[in-house]
Amino acid sequence: xxxxxxxxxxxxxxxxxxxxxxxxxxxxxxxxxxxxxxxxxxxxxxxxxxxxxxxxxxxxxxxxxxxxxxxxxxxxxxxxxxxxxxxxxxxxxxxxxxxxxxxxxxxxxxxxxxxxxxx
Length: 119
Fold this sequence. Notes:
By secondary structure, the chain is mainly beta.
């Protein structure tokens, strides 16, 4: 997949088409819950591209998570997660969200009821 992205980026660059600077994340799941999603985050906005999903839709959750040290237990963090958006994007389409806070995070799955995993 990495090589495919590199080849596509090179080809688009040769044609004069370039993406804005930002962070690109790719989520790929193989098997019965097949999923392929690409998200570009740039300057407070994000483009969510659903490339493949076993259910026909990519279900996204966008959230803001803030962590701070716990005074009672040295070396541990207490985190609070606030969901900003939850939406579905059909395979082959994209959705753009603007005015997102710095440091926002997201997760994607084939099912809407699945919650984001905490690392």
